[in-house]
C-alpha cells in the first residue's frame, strides 16, 4: 500500500477520495494508472514512467507523445548498440587464441575495469549482457529514462 500512496503523492495516481474516517478509496482510474505506470517503468524506468503518466493526467497529449517518441528512439539506439556489441563479441570469440603474446595479458586493475564495464546496463530497457559472452546477469540491470 505504501507504493500506491507514494504514486499518489508523486502525481502518478489521481488524488484518492477519502472516507469519513479518512481512509483512502481507490477506483478504476487508480488501477489503470498503476498498471500503465508499471508497464511503462519496464521500458523507460520509474522516473520516465512517472513523467509520462503525470502528463497523461494533465491532458498534455503533445507532451505525452513527445516523451513516448523520445523513449522509443532511445530504446532503438540501445538495441542497435547491443547488436553491435553482440557482433563484436561473436567476431572476437571466433578468433584463434594460438598466437598469445605476453602483451595480451591484463593485470588485476584492467580485469576489474572489464568486469565493471561488462556489468553496466544500458539505461532504458530491462536487458542483460548475459547473451553477449556471458558477461553479466540480468540482476545487474537497472532501467532508467533519460
Descriptive overview:
The chain has helices at residues 2-9, 28-57, 61-93, 108-118, and strands spanning 17-18, 24-25. The protein has 146 residues and is an all-alpha fold. Strands 1-2 form a two-stranded antiparallel sheet. The longest helix has 33 residues, at 61-93. The two termini are 28 Å apart. The model is unreliable at 124-146 (pLDDT under 50).
What's the helix and strand layout?
Layout: H1 2-9, E1 17-18, E2 24-25, H2 28-57, H3 61-93, H4 108-118
Antiparallel strand pairs: 1-2
Which CATH class is shown?
Mainly Alpha
Query: How many beta-strand elements?
Result: 2
Q: Which sequence of SSEs, written as H and E, runs from N to C?
A: HEEHHH
Write out the strand line-up for the largest beta sheet, numbering strands in chain order. 1-2
Helix content: 55-70%
Mean pLDDT: 79
Distance between the termini: 28 Å
CATH architecture: Orthogonal Bundle
Which stretches are poorly predicted, pLDDT < 50 over at least 5 residues? 124-146
Please tell me what the overall shape is: elongated
Task: Give the domain tally.
Answer: 1
Describe the largest sheet: 2 strands, antiparallel
Summary tags:
Multidrug-efflux Transporter Regulator, Chain: A, Domain 2, two-stranded antiparallel sheet, 4 helices, mainly alpha, 56% helix, 146 residues
